[in-house]
Amino acid sequence: MKTYSKAIGAGIGGGLAGAGVSIAGLPPGSPWYAYVIMTVVTTVLPALITYFAPQNAK
Q1: What are the b/e assignments for 24-35, b being 16+ CB within 10 Å?
Q2: Which helix (H) or strand (E) holds 58?
Q3: pLDDT for the residue 1
Q4: What's the CA gap between 34 and 4, in Å, rounded?
């Protein structure tokens, strides 16, 4: 169970960090959907990687 919680934590942390960096990195005057797209990409990608990653061998 510990490996699952660490993987989920890593996915969530990576998603939040990526969302913060992408929002701060977009130039002023970007359309609203650019923020939504960047947030979705940086949140969904780590979640998918975490979901499909193989389990740690014992």
Answers
A1: eeeeeeeeeeee
A2: none
A3: 52
A4: 32
